[in-house]
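Example record

Each entry pairs one chain with its bound ligand, guanosine-5'-diphosphate.
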Amino acid sequence: FMAKLGTGLSRSSSRLTTGLAVFGRRKLDDDTLEELEDLLISSDLGAKVAMRVAGNLAKERFDKEITEDEIRLALAEEITDVMRPREKVVDFSDGPRPRIVMFVGVNGSGKTTTIGKIASKLKEQGAKALLVAGDTFRAAAIEQLTVWGERADIPVMSKPIGSDAAGLVYEAIEKAKAEDLDLVLIDTAGRLQNKSELMSELEKIVRVTRKLDPDAPHDVILVLDATVGQNALSQVEAFRNTAGVTGLVMTKLDGTAKGGVLVAIAEAHDLPIHFIGIGEKAEDLRPFSAEAFSKALVG
Ligand code: GDP
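Structure tokens for the complex follow.
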């Protein structure tokens, strides 16, 4: 499946909002319930949530008239209930020192950008951070992180392309300890061409951080691109198994994709959702809010 990761188009987009509009006012019979379930599943919300929404509506209103607005309201409530336990704003300037935060995810998901945004915020808060260009495979990734570092006036540690990422991470943590820094934010590779190589590299980085701090990495944040639709669910599974993901960020929610798959992820995985990305600039990062998310999704 890895070959397919990241290639999906914007699927959950506004399909749900326009799909709901079709319901207008009608009798809540088996056909209507089935149509609603199909719509929710095709919007990536997952079969469980779809069946629960339909089941709850049927319990209260079966064979009675229902309006599109009532369906929207019931759906928004259900989604908020699923997402609420996943709301967890994280304060990176708190906790162990140095706090070691690793960012994982497939290429193009928005890892480097998210690190840049978080670093800019931390700088404003006065935290002393070090950025590590751990995607040593792509010159563009190293350059991009360097630009973010320069912009936020935060040091970036990098090595020439092709260098051993785990070695770089080791040196970075040693430096952070020696200089008594608050945080180490580590970018990692996300190439899909070779899944086992990528995963063993991530495992190696995790092992190296543990050598210097048995509790590290303190955070492993999986960055997901909202526009890949259903593929995001398999990305969570793949990265959770190898890298021990502790939290999620979903990017590109500023476009047509509304991230319906995040509902299926929240249903299946007990993982906090820390932030959402809503653009390419430093300020385009928001703490995840269950209510705001479900409102945007349902329309
Ligand atoms: P990486 O390969 O995972 O490090 O991904 P990048 O950080 O390089 O991001 C890939 C592309 O997505 C870049 O062009 C970013 O500017 C863009 N991007 C990242 N986050 C967002 C977001 O929240 N919204 C939008 N519209 N673009 C984003």
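Residues 105, 107-113, 141, 144, 190, 223, 251-252, 254-255, 277-280, 284 surround guanosine-5'-diphosphate (CB under 6 Å).
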